[in-house]
Amino acid sequence: MNKLLSATHRFQGYTVIEVMVYIAIVVIVIVFVTLSMVQMTKPIVHLSNTQRVNEVGEYVMDRIVRELRRGVVIDSFSAGNTAITYKIPLTFAERVKKDGAVAHWNFEETTGSTLVDKIGSVHGTIYNDPEQGSTAVVGNGYVFDGGSDGSKDYVQLPNNVFNAHNQGAVEVIAKLDSTATNINSIFAFALGSGPQPTILHTTFKSINGNMRPAMYKTAEVIGNNSDYLLDTFYHIVYDYVSPNTNKIYVNGVEVPLTLNATTGGWFNAASNNGSQYYGIGVKVTGTTPGSLYEAFKGTVDELALYSTFTGSHDAAFWKNHYDAAWGIDNENNVKQMSISYDTNSNRVKFIDDGSESYLSNEKVKISALTLTPIVRDSTNIGAQIVISVVAGEGTPAEVSKTFQTAVMLRNPTI
User: Fold this and answer.
1) Helix (H) or strand (E) holding 364
2) How many angstroms separate the CA atoms of 266 and 390, rounded?
3) Which of 176, 190, 213, 400 lies at a C-alpha separation of 20 to 30 Å from 233?
4) Phi (first) and psi of residue 25, to 5 degrees
């Protein structure tokens, strides 16, 4: 009588289970290869002219609407135009770069140990974990805890990165913690291979129990205006105008000074005779991270350094920066923009502060663009946007379509 083969019965040296596994693997491989071949032989799906027209028309319309909603100040706009010229406010970062900053740190990082320079390559190394990602005026900021020696939060910049100059400025947006006292260092610069007097020091200093902005080079200068509120953001500029002239601006207003106002120059060539050391959030007295004290307790939002300027840097100059940071309308804080229809190439052209870009598609022609103003009152202006798009022009499969929408524009009274 025949018996079923047992699981351990061997067939040419293999058990029944082993044979079944091998067969299953072969079947799986055959199925996979067959499906792959079917997929490879599937016909390529071509977009119809209708699909092309819809995709291009919707994309171009969306781009124009997004551009016009970026905070618009109307400059040139009349009925039936194929172009609109307008202005949008500069961001703080754009303002800083436009005015010649040599370095700008925006403290936007939320993780990691590197503070990134947004203009050059002077990236800082973060020590002792200041709180990152704290809400500030322009995006985020770092919260420095002003801790005891050895545990202070601070940022060390690379040595010897700035050339010597006799003028320059430190621009900062920051706020002191509600419990800050004594001296709170924002940015400091020292020379030499060992402990040296700090060459440049920008800070808040307690005077009779009240905090005021102060700067130090070869002597000390203190802002002798109203006392400042703790836990409140300020835009402060420590301006080393020349070796014998120094100024402090707060929120775009020059403040009177007390004590000795002759502090010497910015990274002064005469004193630039050794290695340079820089610290953010602490005072440095030599090689960092060596002697660190007078730590900052509060939030630093933005910090920029200048060694040259594109023009005069008076109160009006710094007021532009304050307005850009706080989003205050200012006719000096705008850049020129335009959207137009290029009839020669059938493309939509965008100009962003002199930089040109185009929207086009080799298979689809943008045959017309019309922008018509909608005026409700002097500060409430809109645009009716009409785009004509055609695909397969001159062929039996030609498809054309008109897209239109209306968008209200921001038109501040500046």
Assistant:
1) strand 364-377
2) 61
3) 190
4) -65, -45
How does DSSP classify residue 24? H
Closest CA to 226 of 234, 238, 217: 234
Are residues 68 and 383 in contact, defined by beta-carbon separation less than 8 angstroms?
yes
Residue 38: predicted pLDDT? 52
For 5, which DSSP code? P
- Kindly report the average pLDDT of the chain as a whole number: 77
User: For residue 80, what are its two tokens?
Assistant: 């039936």
- Please state the length of the chain: 414
The token pair at 300 is 């630093």
CB atoms inside a 10 Å sphere around CB 192: 16
Residue 292 has pLDDT above 80, yes or no: no
Q: From residue 93, give the alpha-carbon distance in Å to each of 59, 245, 332.
A: 29, 27, 15
Please say whether the beta carbons of 366 and 388 come within 8 A.
yes
Q: Whole-prediction pTM value?
A: 0.74
Residue 235 has pLDDT above 90, yes or no: yes
Distance CA 119, CA 102 (A): 7
